[in-house]
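This part of the workshop introduces the protein records we will be handling. Getting from the letters to the tokens is the skill we practise here. An example says more than a description, so a record of this kind follows:
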Amino acid sequence: MLPTAESRSPNTGDYPFTLPSRPLVVIEPNRSLVSLNLKEVWVYRELLYFLVWRDVKVRYKQTALGVAWVVMQPALMTVIFTIFLGKLARIPTGNTPYALLVYIGLLPWTFFSSAVLNSGTSIVANAHLITKIYFPRVIAPAAAVGARLVDFGISFVILIGLMTYFHVGLTPRVLMLPVLLLLVTLLALGFGMIAAALNVKYRDVTMMLPVLIQLGMFISPVLYPQSLVPEHWRSLYMLNPMVGIISAFRAALVGDPFQWIPLGISALESVVLLIISFALFRRIERGFADIV
């Protein structure tokens, strides 16, 4: 017969005190699929900052041009599309220079595409952390999106120089930019969490994402104004959440009229997608450490 907690003796190496009959702390998974414990994320905010800084630092480590790569991608694409579409195809852009129209479109699109691509692989890339320590798993894709905000800020400085070159001044509409940036960030986080969760189980997601992103650029008003889309296709076209966001970026920067219906659709879709992505992410994250 084994000795009880009360009869154990200190001389035998057993506990010299009475153990509680019930556990003091019970750890169990949260049963809710859509709840996000913001307090827990706030507790781990320093880890979020560290992962963002690590992503930024590692990206430019041992590169000859450094942060110039951030500018070169949208700048080179702007030059190429200006030559082939602006000069040869002569896409109508109204009073806005085609180079400026394309760069403004590429600014949110480059941020969105790179954020989705990097957050989509964030769980697998941080497997060494996920299998060893606990932290809110949503921090991994959120850090990948946050790191791309640094790139956005650098590219925006170049946009100011481009607007100065074309003698396009800022208007009070520029105050809408923080709202638009928040909107595209939430949209990127939503898509990124879905891609990250699915990528843990199905590594084909890594191969599919660049193809889907490339196709998405051509069905979004990145290289052309939204007015170029035929009238009978616009209702379907506006279901693309990037349509309202990119059009609103141009309206805020070059004075085009805001198109509130596409922007409202984009905002609604971003919120709905974020809720769905949280639910899917929480359902799959319980097995991340076992699969990754």
